[in-house]
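User: Please fill in residues for this 589-position structure.
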């Protein structure tokens, strides 16, 4: 647990160390203060009031010091808790920022959100509220144990044996509910995910499922959470009961040993000093057990927080994309794939199956193929959303694994179908592609992407807020802003995943115009669905089941009468376009 906390805290670990040291000191001081009762009671019982008063003063002084240390300890614990929330979230954010984009599945996103909210809160409360009673609850009995060993060795030995046994029981009961705790946390995260899905997919749910069935997935998740919650509650209650019993058994054993001691004393001559020893032993035994009860009571929170820490740890264990130690800058704006194989998961089939291709700087390549043939996956590998399992992806003549993520990001810009807009203005979202862009550059990108036509209709112009995730704009408007964002970045390579049917004719025309303007200036790799786009390309690559089956200039491929020719034929029939055999650039009729 401490290792995991250290990983979360990073440089702030020093705060945790200081706090833990202080908690141990507090436990020792509490034990020593209780031990002041020994001389106090002894002198009181033999009537030496003046010495007893001196020890009373010492006891009161000890109590005062303990209060002071405890107060300081609480502050230190809160400081560590705050550091966990701040540094922990920051470090987790840093870590996930370097994870492959493929890691961000719906389930992992829900885990991440759960870990940064409830998870972090549960962990942060450990130093603030739980570690102090647990640490002092273990250290104080150890100090008292030494006094019991001196006072009556058999009693001390019984306590010495009882302490590790008790810890073993606490550890066992913690394990008892650990799986239930983990299952509950997972179902809790899944239910949150379903809840968000339920809210954001209302239109689809109502259209296809009707009101009754639309809640089915959510209800299933809630039922699972309820079942695992009930199981956790039962096991937690059982483990709390077992813990309390274990402490009471220790208490009973110590009382039995004390009774046996009294018995032997009664059989012999009962002296004043032996009577005093017995009274002191009884006081120490009760004080020995009290902090242990505190530990037992907190074991539940400790276990739950440990489960949360393990969840956070599992996120930290996800492997980030490796960064090279000596990054090599790309040499030009070319793209090359050499015998690339890729699958999304080890048990799934290859999505790309030995793909080799070469794209020269400044050229335009149209990637075509049936749905599921691997076009988007190929573009994702160029942008290094994932690493290829075999073979290599080169950008600017350099393996993408040999350049830093910043170098690659500067080299490649993307317009993918699902473009996310951040809450902020239209201008903010465009500038996101290049924060230092001048106003003139902003306007030029907005013009190229057809955003100007949108903002002219809006009273606040480019400063119009887009709403959360761009919800105040239409799909086509969002797409145009995303295009402007990609254009302003001015990267030498542009990857475009052209929408199939999501765009209306006007938006499609904007993309076509933007591509036409950029043609020859940037390397364009376009996942093309539209005839207008394909017609502009210098090179066509046809993918089929993860393999390149045709590659070359449009004229050559058309002459082959293969898959590309079929694609053109289908599109022409659909659109009413005509292609002349000796002229590959089609003309609209
Ligand atoms: N994140 C993912 N996890 C697992 N499998 C995936 C993932 N993304 C895509 N696939 C699978 O990989 C294969 C290729 O998908 P890809 O999106 O690359 O095809 P595509 O040619 O771009 O299809 P489309 O034209 O329909 O967009 C498909 O079988 C798809 O189910």
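Assistant: Residues filled in for all 589 positions:
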């Amino acid at each position: 647990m401490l290792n995991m906390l250290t990983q979360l805290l990073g440089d702030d670990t020093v705060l945790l160390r200081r706090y833990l040291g202080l908690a141990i000191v507090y436990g020792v001081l509490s034990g020593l203060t209780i031990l002041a009762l020994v001389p106090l009671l002894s002198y009181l019982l033999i009537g030496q009031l003046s010495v007893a008063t001196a020890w009373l003063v010492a006891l009161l002084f000890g109590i005062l010091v303990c209060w002071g240390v405890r107060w300081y300890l609480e502050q230190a614990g809160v400081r560590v808790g705050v550091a966990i929330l701040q540094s922990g979230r920051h470090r987790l954010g840093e870590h996930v920022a370097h994870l492959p984009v493929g890691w961000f599945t719906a389930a992992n996103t829900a885990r991440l959100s759960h870990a940064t909210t409830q998870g972090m809160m549960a962990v942060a409360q450990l130093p603030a509220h739980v570690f102090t009673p647990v640490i002092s609850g273990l250290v104080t009995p150890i100090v008292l144990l030494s006094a019991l060993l001196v006072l009556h060795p058999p009693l001390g030995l019984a306590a010495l044996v009882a302490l590790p046994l008790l810890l073993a029981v606490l550890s066992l009961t913690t394990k008892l509910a650990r799986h239930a705790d983990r299952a509950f946390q997972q179902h809790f995260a899944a239910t949150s995910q379903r809840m968000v899905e339920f809210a954001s997919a209302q239109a689809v749910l109502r259209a296809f499922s009707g009101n009754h069935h639309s809640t089915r997935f959510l209800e299933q998740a809630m039922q699972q959470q309820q079942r695992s919650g009930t199981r956790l509650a039962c096991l937690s209650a059982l483990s709390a009961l077992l813990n309390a019993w274990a402490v009471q058994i220790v208490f009973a054993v110590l009382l039995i040993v004390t009774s046996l001691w009294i018995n032997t004393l009664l059989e012999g001559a009962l002296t004043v000093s032996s009577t005093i020893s017995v009274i002191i032993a009884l006081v120490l035994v009760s004080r020995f057990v009290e902090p242990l009860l505190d530990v037992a009571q907190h074991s539940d929170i400790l276990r739950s927080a440990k489960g949360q820490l393990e969840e956070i740890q599992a996120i930290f264990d996800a492997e980030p994309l490796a960064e090279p130690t000596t990054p090599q800058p790309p040499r030009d704006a070319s793209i090359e794939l050499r015998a690339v194989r890729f699958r999304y998961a080890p048990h799934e089939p290859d999505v790309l199956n030995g793909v080799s291709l070469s794209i020269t700087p400044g050229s335009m390549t149209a990637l075509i193929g049936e749905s599921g043939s691997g076009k988007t996956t190929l573009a994702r590998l160029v942008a290094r959303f994932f690493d290829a399992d075999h073979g290599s992806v080169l950008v600017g003549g350099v393996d993408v694994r040999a350049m830093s993520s910043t170098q690659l990001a500067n080299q490649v810009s993307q317009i993918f179908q699902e473009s996310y807009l951040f809450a902020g203005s239209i201008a903010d979202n465009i500038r996101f592609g290049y924060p230092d862009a001048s106003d003139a550059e902003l306007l030029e990108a907005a013009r190229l992407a057809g955003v100007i036509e949108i903002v002219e209709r809006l009273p606040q112009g480019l400063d119009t807020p887009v709403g959360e995730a761009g919800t105040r704009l239409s799909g086509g408007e969002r797409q145009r802003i995303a295009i402007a964002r990609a254009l302003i970045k001015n990267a030498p390579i542009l990857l475009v995943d052209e929408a199939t049917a999501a765009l209306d004719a006007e938006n499609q025309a904007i993309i076509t115009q933007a591509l036409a303007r950029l043609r020859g200036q940037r390397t364009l790799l376009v996942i093309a669905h539209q005839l207008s786009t394909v017609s502009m390309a210098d090179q066509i690559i046809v993918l089929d089941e993860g393999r390149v089956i045709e590659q070359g200039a449009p004229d050559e491929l058309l002459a082959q009468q293969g898959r590309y020719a079929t694609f053109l034929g289908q599109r022409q029939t659909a659109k009413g376009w005509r292609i002349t055999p000796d002229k590959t650039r089609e003309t609209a009729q």
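For context: Confidence is low (pLDDT under 50) at residues 577-589.
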